[in-house]
Q: What sequence folds into this?
């Protein structure tokens, strides 16, 4: 039983981290994606490049700089005094911040594409029907971009579950605090506990398969709706 | 006849460079009736309409219903949702995630405090025949049905003016024929000014009261339609062969036996086959110049029923073509005739000459001028 508890702890922690990250990403990423899709500003390609950076950057590089930024002497470090911690590095909060940055492109990209696919017309129609831009966003933009929002959320969630490099750099391996599934697997392999590594790995494998299957089904459904 | 001389509902001076087009127009939209923005494609019609709605921003000023919608001098610009316009796009553009009923009531929560709505919802639904469509989703509708819903949706947004951008051009002939009567009855039942963008002179002569002719971003002429159609020079975007006259007639009598309706146009009486409408109602008569032939003496033994004694007021030879156009008058009655230059020469037609106009066919629009 104790063994199962030991396995469950990283699973629960990963689920907690991914849910919280996805929630924050939808909150921050949706307005950002809206701005990227609709703004005529030239600055937006620069912002888009910054958002996409984690796609190509080695996770260790991102983790390294986040470690410095969130550490006690880093620019964000002083905020840790507010939470009473010595530093945000090696804490769950630090992990959440890192995950939000690391998974940002996975949430923003599909949502931005969905907003762009709507085109300007429905918003023009809404405006001539007396809806303010804010009301159009809620009543036209969000409902029409729903498939993009769903796949953005699914991808961000899945990606956060699977991250390793950034977590290792910034979170370390504190049980119940920063020891997520991927770190636990690494740890079990290092200490030759292959049975436990297997159980977690197979779980992740199944999870990844189900995620991809689900997004495909969502896409196909959206397309079918579009075609009819 | 609608008067453009009344205080206009909307006045706009707009200019700007859109691609290759240098646009510079001044428009007055009368308070009543349909004003057609007419001209060949690329002349800036849609750009002007979008600017009136605030969807495009051009330089200049727009005053509507005593309010300033745009003024470049002080930089004021009223956002589209703050202008009380109803807008019907070329494509119906219904919200795909909403049912027909939800599309129709989209603006309801923003217009609750507004009075002076064009028509109450029940009347719009009845007028446009939307009742059987309410529960459906937009993708289950035909093109014509979609456009009807779009018109209804615009009417329910408490507009002070309705802007329509070629609402029929994306439809096939059958759907067009299905919607035209709805537009005509809109015209009859609504006291709402309508701006109607079109490049189709057929639609324009059926619907419009005021005509604004545009070419390459400039207004060539604006004024009452019937008056502008009297000119022998074809309007821009209209070929000489499409030349026509617009008359207002009143139904006088209908003969059950012969099935012939008599219509009075001024002091003249026209006979047309079929039942046109209740006695005393006004009808818009459209007579194509190519349907009017001329004779020097009153023709005998012909099957044509409408032969009118008139005199020639003007002749225009269309050099380089086989044709000439002749303007005919008899008191307030004016007609145009299109004949070959060869017959013109043979008959030795000249201004002032008395002739007999033989009208081969007359078409109708469902409402009066």
A:
């Amino acid at each position: 039983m104790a063994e199962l508890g030991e396995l469950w702890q990283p699973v629960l922690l990963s689920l907690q981290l991914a849910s919280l990250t996805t929630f924050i990403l939808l909150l921050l990423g949706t307005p950002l994606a809206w701005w990227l899709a609709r703004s005529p500003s030239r600055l937006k390609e620069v912002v888009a490049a910054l958002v996409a950076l984690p796609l190509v950057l080695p996770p260790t590089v991102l983790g390294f700089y986040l470690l410095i930024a969130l550490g006690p002497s880093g620019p964000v470090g002083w905020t840790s005094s507010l939470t009473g911690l010595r530093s945000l590095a090696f804490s769950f909060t630090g992990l959440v911040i890192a995950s939000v940055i690391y998974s940002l492109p996975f949430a923003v990209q599909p949502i931005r594409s969905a907003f762009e696919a709507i085109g300007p017309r429905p918003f023009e129609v809404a405006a001539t029907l007396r809806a303010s831009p804010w009301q159009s966003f809620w009543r036209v933009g969000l409902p029409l971009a729903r498939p993009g929002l769903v796949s953005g959320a699914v991808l961000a969630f899945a990606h956060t579950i699977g991250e390793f490099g950034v977590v290792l750099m910034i979170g370390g391996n504190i049980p119940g605090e920063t020891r997520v599934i991927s770190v636990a697997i690494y740890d079990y392999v290092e200490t030759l506990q292959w049975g436990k590594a297997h159980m977690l790995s197979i779980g992740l494998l199944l999870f990844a398969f189900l995620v991809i299957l689900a997004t495909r089904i969502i896409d196909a459904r959206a397309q079918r709706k579009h075609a009819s | 006849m609608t008067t453009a001389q009344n205080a206009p509902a909307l006045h706009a001076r707009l200019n700007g460079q859109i691609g290759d087009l240098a646009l510079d127009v001044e428009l007055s939209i009368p308070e009543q009736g349909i004003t057609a923005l007419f001209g060949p494609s690329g002349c800036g019609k849609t750009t002007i309409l979008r600017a009136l709605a605030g969807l495009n921003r051009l330089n200049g000023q727009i005053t509507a219903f005593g309010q300033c919608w745009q003024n470049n001098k002080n930089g004021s610009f009223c956002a589209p949702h703050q202008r009380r316009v109803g807008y019907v796009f070329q494509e119906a553009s219904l919200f795909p995630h909403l049912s027909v009923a939800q599309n129709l009531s989209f603006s309801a929560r923003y217009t609750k405090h507004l009075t002076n709505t064009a028509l109450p919802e029940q009347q719009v639904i009845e007028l446009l025949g939307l009742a059987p469509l309410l529960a459906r989703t937009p993708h289950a509708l035909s093109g014509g049905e979609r456009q009807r819903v779009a018109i209804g949706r615009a009417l329910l947004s408490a507009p002070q003016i309705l802007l329509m951008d070629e609402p029929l051009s994306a439809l096939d002939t059958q759907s067009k024929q299905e919607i035209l009567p709805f537009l005509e009855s809109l015209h009859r039942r609504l006291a709402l000014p309508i701006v109607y963008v079109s490049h189709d002179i057929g639609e324009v002569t059926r619907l419009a009261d005021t005509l604004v002719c545009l070419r390459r971003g400039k207004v060539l002429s604006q004024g009452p339609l019937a008056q502008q159609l009297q000119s022998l020079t074809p309007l821009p975007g209209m070929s000489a062969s499409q030349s026509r006259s617009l008359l207002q007639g009143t139904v006088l009598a209908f003969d059950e036996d012969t099935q012939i309706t008599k219509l009075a146009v001024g002091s003249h009486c026209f006979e047309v086959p079929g039942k046109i409408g209740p006695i005393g109602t006004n009808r818009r008569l459209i007579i194509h110049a190519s349907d009017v032939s001329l004779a020097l003496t009153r023709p005998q033994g012909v099957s044509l029923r409408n032969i009118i004694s008139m005199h020639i007021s003007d002749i225009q030879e269309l050099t380089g073509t086989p044709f000439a156009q002749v303007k005919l008058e008899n008191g307030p009655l004016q007609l145009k005739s299109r004949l070959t230059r060869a017959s013109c020469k043979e008959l030795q037609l000249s201004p002032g000459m008395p002739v007999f106009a033989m009208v081969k066919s007359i078409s109708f629009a469902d409402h009066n001028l």
Notes: DSSP finds nine helices and 21 strands in chain B. The two ends of chain B are 6 Å apart (CA to CA). Chain B touches chain A through 25 residues (CB under 8 Å).
